[in-house]
Amino acid sequence: MEKTKNIAPHVMACKRCEGKGRIFYLDQGGAPLSAKCPVCNGSGRVNTRIEPFVPGEDDTELMTM
Ligand SMILES: [Zn+2]
Description:
65 residues; mainly beta; two-stranded antiparallel ribbon; 0% helix; 25% strand
């Protein structure tokens, strides 16, 4: 039995944050900070156009871990 899905955009893990959705860095004082990844907009995934993965719009196909 096969599932047929609408696989519109190809979704892949964000390379900037390695799929975490957040980026980690040190501020000027050396304190660890994290922020939402600007590349994937916090979803940890991007489509092949390197645009943010939009949950609810681009999640027709979940990324395979
Ligand atoms: Zn990212």
